[in-house]
Amino acid sequence: MNDALITNFVDNMNSLSNGNISEVLEKVYTNEIEFIDPVKGIHGLDDLTNYFAGLYKSVDHCHFTISNYVPHGSQHSIEWEMKLKHQKLAKNKEITLEGASFIRFEDDKVCYHRDYYDLGALIYERIPILGSAVRKVRNAFQ
Q1: What whole-number distance in Å separates Cα of residue 109 and Cα of residue 107?
Q2: pTM (2 decimals)?
């Protein structure tokens, strides 16, 4: 396993747009991909393509920067920062979110991808009344 696989993975994910989802995901993931994030668990490339099509419907741009990754054979732990501009979040202002992913490769494609990020920071804190309540709870524990 080498750095080229991670670079290729990140470059492809950064090239995703509403118009090329199927093409990009076919380059990156196996047909039997298992994908898990804080919102949903998905098995299979077709279901993942449909999920991403829904996610990217209102995305103006989404860019990932890798801050650290730890390779271990075919498995990688990746820390990242995402910059997202979404028409329905934060009044279409850019959002920055930190997260981590655990990915596993099989034949140079990703067969397992699990994302970890703060869903509250991405969505719940941006809903007017709910957001202030979430921030109060979060601040109470800091």
Answers
A1: 6
A2: 0.83
